[in-house]
Write a structure and sequence with these properties.
Blueprint lengths: L8 H13 L4 H14 L2 H19 L12 H6 L1
Helix pairs in contact: 1-2
Length: 79
């Protein structure tokens, strides 16, 4: 299928250079890139984001705090 797309100049040049370095056509580079993007399962991205968020939250937690635990009615009124 033929199509026309507008690419930023820097992206186009990088792709052309990559194609020349690998003895490929520009079309092959574009097809490989699109296959890579479309075949990557979105779950992998979600797992990466969750892991990054978890480590960020851990890093943000003050070292002198303890996790919150629910108090019972008696404990609330005793304080």
């Amino acid at each position: 299928m033929k199509t026309t797309i507008d690419l930023p100049d820097d992206v186009f040049l990088k792709a052309k250079i990559l194609a020349a370095e690998r003895s490929m056509t520009f079309k092959d580079v574009v097809v490989q890139g699109l296959k890579l993007v479309t075949e990557t399962p979105p779950e992998a991205d979600q797992k990466k984001r969750k892991a990054a968020l978890k480590s960020l939250l851990k890093a943000m937690q003050a070292s002198n705090t303890e996790p919150m635990v629910p108090l019972k009615r008696e404990e609330i009124y005793d304080r």
